[in-house]
């Protein structure tokens, strides 16, 4: 993905056992922070003929 | 527009992370509300096309967890 | 090169006569210059149509999948690697095949020839040089200047499996950096990479010629044809185009032998090898794996080992 020009921080892989709820929460936080830092995904989105702003408004 | 909220699609294994998510919920732990969980029968069910489809349809991030 | 064809014909006739095979797949002259076409010879007379020169870039391994007959096949280095992959993937049995191995000296890139000359009528491969004949000109060029890009960086020109070789193995160059193109892209910033591929793929007309030419693309239903759910749109939307090329490359990871058939088949001249090459490089870096060299080892994406790399997992 990164090779193609999608930010590698958009995709995360992890291994959390069903007993590790604390790790789950930690990873959710990490992933959220990483994606928040990147900002909206403007690249790999299919626009369906709309520009991003009107797409956002429609999606909201 | 109000503050931007990320959309993260989480592919969680039924037996591992999905269980962990359930446990986190039962234990009333707090975590960011931006993930959209998709339960998969096993992390081995994951396919690159799922991740691409998620991004294509407007997800800001993808998280795969076994 | 020139000497090969007599040997190819001789072996083909012999194995047909001995009933070792039901047919021999080779090349015959195409109707357009620089485009030899596949030819299935079932009789010794058919064999006389066979040719061999620098225009035999099509990967004949493509015609083996699921065949029940005994087949003789003329195969270059990359073709034999694809045959090995087919054997590993149970698409054909080794016992069914009689492989006529051709030590390959590279295939001529017809696009380069057409870019340099107008109205090319005939291109004759003379071994080290290439004679290009047009309506009112005749030129002689070094073959090394006209090779397909994958042939110029080929590290396995000699057949890896064969029943018979038609000539002495060619010298394998050792000073070649076959991943140079990939490294160049890897060094780019995220922004530049995105732009690079946008540029690369903007000509794509989604004809799927690359998929059809590829010996690895044999799924009964390709993901692009699936409609419930539809994983990738059928339009020329840049994201759909990207998804197609990207996923196709993924499906070839650890299997692609960089034979260049996809690139050769592309009507608009997209170098889609930059996708597959990256995955081949990753397989090499992570698992030390090069596709199609042996039938004894299962490919890395097919097996689990405790020491598989897992740094990307949190």
Name the assembly state. Answer: heterotrimer
User: Biggest sheet of chain B, strands in spatial order?
Assistant: 2-1-3
What is the β-strand count of chain A?
A: 1
Question: Percent of residues of chain A in helical segments?
Answer: 40-55%
Tell me the major beta sheet of chain A.
Answer: none
User: Regions of chain A with pLDDT < 50 over 5+ consecutive residues?
Assistant: none
Could you please describe the fold and organization of this structure?
The complex is a heterotrimer of chains A (60), B (66) and C (314). With 60 residues, chain A is mainly alpha-helical. Chain A is built from two helices and one strand; from the N terminus they run E-H-H. Chain A has helices at residues 21-38, 52-59, and one strand spanning 11-14. By secondary structure, chain B is α/β, with parallel strands linked by helices. Chain B has helices spanning 17-26, 48-56, and strands at 8-13, 35-40, 61-65. Chain B has a three-stranded parallel sheet, with helices on both faces. The relative contact order of chain B is 0.33. With 314 residues, chain C is of the alpha/beta class. Chain C has eleven helices and eight strands. Chain C has a five-stranded mixed sheet. A three-stranded antiparallel sheet of chain C has the order 5-6-7, with no helix packed on it. In chain C, strand 3, helix 3 and strand 4 form a beta-alpha-beta unit. Classes of the chains: A mainly alpha (60), B alpha/beta (66), C alpha/beta (314). Chains in contact: A-B, A-C, B-C. Chain A binds chain B through residues 1, 6, 9-25, 27-29, 31-32, 34-36, 38-41, 44-46, 55-57, 59-60, and chain B through 1, 4, 6, 8, 10, 15-24, 27, 29-32, 34-35, 43, 51-52, 55-66. Strand 1 of chain A pairs parallel with strand 3 of chain B, so a sheet runs across the interface.
Note the main attributes of this structure:
heterotrimer; A: 60 residues; mainly alpha; 2 helices; elongated; C: 314 residues; alpha/beta; 2 domains; three-stranded antiparallel β-sheet; 8 strands
Helix-strand blueprint:
The complex is a heterotrimer of chains A (60), B (66) and C (314).
Chain A: E1 11-14, H1 21-38, H2 52-59
Chain B: E1 8-13, H1 17-26, E2 35-40, H2 48-56, E3 61-65
Parallel strand pairs in B: 1-2, 1-3
Chain C: H1 2-17, E1 23-28, E2 37-41, H2 44-47, E3 71-75, H3 77-88, E4 97-101, H4 110-116, E5 120-125, E6 129-134, E7 138-142, H5 149-152, E8 164-165, H6 180-186, H7 190-201, H8 209-213, H9 238-251, H10 261-265, H11 273-287
